[in-house]
C-alpha cells in the first residue's frame, strides 16, 4: 500500500509558541469584553424602555 508523502511539521520555537498563545488570548479577551459591553448596553436599553 502506498502512502502519500507529507512534509514533517516544522519545529515550533518557544518564542513562536508564546507569541501565538498570546495572540490567541488577546483576541479571546477582546471578544469577551466586546460581547459583555454589548450585553450591558442591551440590558440598560431594555430597562430604560420597559420601565
Can you tell me about this structure?
By secondary structure, the protein is mainly α. 73% of the residues lie in helices and 0% in strands. It contains 1 helix and no strands. The protein has one helix at 14-50. The longest helix is centred in the middle third of the chain and has 37 residues, at 14-50. It is elongated. The termini are far apart.
Chart the SSEs and their pairings.
Elements: H1 14-50
Summarize the structure.
With 51 residues, this protein is an all-alpha fold.
Entry keywords:
mainly alpha
What is the H/E order? H
State the end-to-end CA separation.
72 Å
Number of helices: 1
Strand content of the residues, in percent? under 5%
Query: What is Rg?
Result: 22 Å
Low-confidence stretches: none
The counted number of beta strands is 0
Find the structural class using helix and strand composition: mainly alpha
Shape: elongated
Fraction of residues in helix? over 70%
How many strands, which pairing sense, and closed or not: the largest β-sheet? none
Mean model confidence by pLDDT: 90
Amino acid at each position: 500500500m502506498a502512502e502519500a508523502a507529507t512534509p514533517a511539521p516544522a519545529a515550533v520555537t518557544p518564542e513562536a509558541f508564546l507569541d501565538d498563545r498570546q495572540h490567541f488570548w488577546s483576541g479571546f479577551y477582546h471578544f469577551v469584553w466586546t460581547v459583555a459591553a454589548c450585553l450591558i448596553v442591551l440590558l440598560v436599553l431594555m430597562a430604560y424602555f420597559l420601565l
